[in-house]
Amino acid sequence: MSDKMHIKLNVNGKDEEFLAEPRELLIHTLRERLDITGPHIGCETTHCGACTVTIDGKSVKSCTMFLAQANGAEITTIEGMGEPDNLHVLQSSFKEHHGLQCGFCTPGMITRAAKLLEENPNPTEEDVRFGMAGNICRCTGYQNIVKSILAAAAEMNSAKEAAE
Amino acid sequence: MIPAAFEYYRPKDMEGVLAILEEHGDDARVMAGGHSLIPMMKLRMAEVPHLIDLQDVEGLSGITVADTIRIGAMTTQNALINDAALEAAAPILKEAALQIADPQVRYMGTLGGNVANGDPGNDMPGLMQCLDATFHLVGPEGERDVSARDFYEAAYMTDREDEEVLTAVSFPAPQGGFAYEKQKRKIGDYATAAAAVQIVKDGGTCTGAQIAMTNLSDTPIYSEEASEALVGTSVDDAAIKAAIDAMLGDIDPTEDNRGPIAFKKHVAGVILRRAIERAWSRA
Fold first, then answer.
1. Residues 6 or more apart from A73 whose CB is under 8 A from it?
2. C-alpha distance from A4 to closest chain B C-alpha (Å)
3. What is A89-159's CATH number, 3.40.50.150, 3.40.50.300, 1.10.150.120, 3.30.1600.10?
4. pLDDT tens across B188-197, in order?
5. Cβ contact (<8 Å) for A61 and B78?
6. By C-alpha distance, which of B275, B66, B59 is closest to B168?
7. Under an 8 Å CB criterion, which residues of A touch B?
8. Residue B34 and residue A131: Cβ atoms within 8 Å?
9. What is the pLDDT of residues B135-179, one digit of tens each?
10. Regarding the domain delimited by A5-80, which CATH topology (the fold level of the hierarchy) does it fall under?
11. How far apart are alpha carbons B138 and A88 in whole angstroms?
């Protein structure tokens, strides 16, 4: 067993500090150590995207990052995006447009979609499909996921215009 | 899936990296984005007692565009896709990078990791051979350069010594038309066959061509003969057929879950034809 490392993270705006083995995978840190269970373990092999979180401005599959690599990073998970009584636009859009069925992939979908819309606020349907290609859903057939994201983009843009 | 325990290092400079590599030899490995290495460590198919994370090492990322284009090893696929100067000077990089893995992986995956790992499924080695790139290595004896066309020996076996690190790639700004064409079973898969093609056109005649193939041998394959089959022609059907025949003589695919050998050769021909036609149309 290797020595434990002194780890510092900022997760959803909160500083966390603890000792851990470098080989711990970030998804396990989030779910088991910090009780942040929005990011899910789907495939554990970098394919499905259910564990997607935002790390220092990048969408990352947290099953494929050692905790040691994330040391010092700022991390946002679905828990950092909205509250049950104050949903993020993407969350309410997924609800409105039936962007989920079983919901297992949804936290990863929404976390990834938020980054996609930040980088490309006016995506075409093709942009959305290509930009979401790292997230797998076995229920919906993607149609309503794409619809939810496009509707959220439109809503975010009209809110931005109204604010200007 | 939990990997075996390891010691983790995050040195700030290359001297620190080389010191750890020299001290631990085979037991130490450098990691860039980790998206090839971590899955292998989770499966316990790779054991790395001393893991050196390159993320804090100064000067390993960035893109310089001039007559020679230089790209730092830690430059991510995502950065390659979003660099306007690189897109203007060498658009084949973006075209290829967009066909690698998926968005999340491209934020982490690096050009250096992709070329240094030696996985015949990786796309950048073939592309680097097409572009006649030079790989810049540093080790205890200092710096040295290796041509991408001489770098690959077998699957996961390259000219890089255990105590050396690939720091950058450089290549002459490509001329003419380009295409990176890849057939894959699904997003995120490695190629069943892929082709990187650059073609120079003067009047209606091809005056230069560079063709490399991916995942059709245990190394990327630069096909000199396929390239030469196009030069001096109008890239008509006969010339394309000659190039495909020459390429098929150079590759050596094996049967796996992407198909039997005959199928792979068939797909290689289809993909190369598409790549040549698209590169020619852009030349």
1. A9, A10, A55, A56
2. 9
3. 1.10.150.120
4. 899 999 999 9
5. no
6. B59
7. 1-3, 5, 21-23, 25, 28, 44-47, 49, 52, 58-61, 64-66, 68-69, 71, 112, 116, 130-134
8. no
9. 999 999 999 999 999 999 999 999 999 999 999 999 999 999 999
10. Ubiquitin-like (UB roll) (3.10.20)
11. 48
